[in-house]
């Protein structure tokens, strides 16, 4: 079965510092991986995805993620954090075997400290 | 990306009543829609997959008679919580997938509906 794991419940980063939100995956076959962000009382917003091609994927709001096949990781990164980046971040994998169903990680709450 | 709307954004109802939540894809035809629920400070739990013109597929442990899903058109899916009880209070989110070119690999989410059952 497809799954993703987010080992950190919360990440605290000072504004202006680089940030990393970790994600590892377990899939059969080639993975379709996603990052979404959720602001309070809102739905999820798509940030970026990895389907194929370059291992470094660039997405919205200056975020990027690096696909690492040997480490089965897809960590989300940003060179310089903003206070407005504070939100809940979800890593997800698409279950290609069934109706495009997406499996979400438990989420990581990112706090950017001013 | 695709635009998905939900209505209402929040609803408060009495125990025992039914509540209908609408999910609309505004700028493309969605052959498949998904319904999730999210408890406070938790991840999204997939409830069911809604396919246009056919019966929904429910995840294990989700009562199909309690959570009625109808996907009568390519732009509208509805979730009806029947005989709601306080434990049904949650944040319900829909998403779309399997639409026309460019959307198949990415799901786009509605803004969510906050249901509170008194």
Description:
The complex is a heterodimer of chains A (114) and B (118). Chain A has no helices and 12 strands. Chain A is globular. In chain B, the strands form 2 sheets. In chain B, strands 2, 4, 5, 6, 9, 10 and 11 form a 7-stranded mixed sheet that branches. The model of chain B has no long low-confidence stretch (mean pLDDT 88). Chains A and B meet through strand 6 and strand 11 of A and strand 5, strand 9 and strand 10 of B.
Map the helices and strands.
The complex is a heterodimer of chains A (114) and B (118).
Chain A: E1 3-5, E2 10-14, E3 19-21, E4 24-26, E5 33-38, E6 44-50, E7 56-58, E8 64-68, E9 73-78, E10 87-95, E11 101-104, E12 108-113
Parallel strand pairs in A: 2-12
Antiparallel strand pairs in A: 1-4, 3-9, 5-6, 5-10, 7-8, 8-9, 10-11, 10-12
Chain B: E1 4-7, E2 10-13, E3 19-25, E4 32-38, E5 44-51, E6 57-58, E7 67-73, E8 76-81, E9 90-97, E10 108-109, E11 113-117
Parallel strand pairs in B: 2-11
Antiparallel strand pairs in B: 1-3, 3-8, 4-5, 4-9, 5-6, 7-8, 9-10, 9-11
